Amino acid sequence: MHILGVRVDNLNLEESLDKISSFLADGRQHYIVLPYADFFVEAEKDSEFKEILNKADLSLADGFGPVLFSPCFGEGLKGRVMGVDLVLALFEKFWDKNSFFLFGAAEGTAQATVDRLLQDHPFGKIVGMLNGFVADSAAIEKINKTKPEILLVGLGMPKQEKWIAQNLSKLLSVKLAIGVGGAFDFISGRVRRAPKIVQRAGLEWLWRVVFYPSRWKKTWRSVIIFPWLAARSLF
Ligand code: UDP
Q1: What is the mean pLDDT of residues 148-166?
Q2: In the chain, at which end, N or C, are there fewer CB atoms within 10 A of the end residue's CB?
Q3: Model confidence, pTM
Q4: Atom of ligand 1 at shortest distance to CA of 103?
Q5: Which of ligand 1's atoms lies nearest the C-alpha of 215?
Q6: For the chain, what is the largest distance between any 2 Cα atoms, rounded to a whole number of angstroms?
Q7: Is 219 left (phi over 0), alpha (psi -120 to 50) or beta?
Q8: Pocket of ligand 1 (CB under 6 A)
Q9: In a 3-state reduction of DSSP, which class is residue 85?
Q10: pLDDT digits (tens, 9 = 90+) for 55-82
């Protein structure tokens, strides 16, 4: 289905993992995007970004907003697939089969994320990591040297999606790249995730307003602008 002209695939986490298994086996390169409300607002004004989202091999709704408004645009979405949950489930399923590289977030955060992931699977194949504030050429060089199959890119949107679109073909070993936003911040524990009950109620935005007020712009766009654009497109 499409929400405000952006394709979203109606798969739950388990179905997404099955799809990813087939991606990893077919010998081609793939990328996945995880749009939440702010993505649709950004895509309205950035056609290059919208095209990148629509060309993704899989587009999974990371946010409560798109799920809530999806019935207005066709079939309702089954539910959210959150970036953090996808990363954890992906590592749980493929830790011994495929090699991983974590690219993004502040110095030390990727390392803390790796430490957290390896707690459960100490022999997990994590071949490299890099903070998200290095030159593209340095990142490409390191990724090509360590030859991962799964590349997790946490540079925030729309930077990470553009980075993947621009560079994936230069990363010969990579079979799957995913824009994971702030997932490393959450997995490493550097940013506190809203409690499950708050997530389920769709009130993460309120949690962010209280605990991370500097993110007011994202919250405004997700909570006010996205519903406004969705409502406007209906009339
Ligand atoms: N980030 C980065 N390089 C940059 C800009 C941002 O690595 O040039 C990281 C930032 O440290 C944070 C993540 O990208 O870990 C963005 O998280 P945010 O939650 O803002 O992203 P979103 O999920 O909203 O796309």
Answers
A1: 98
A2: C
A3: 0.95
A4: 7
A5: 20
A6: 54
A7: alpha
A8: 104-106, 132-133, 154-157, 159, 181-182, 184-185
A9: helix
A10: 999 999 998 899 999 999 998 999 999 9
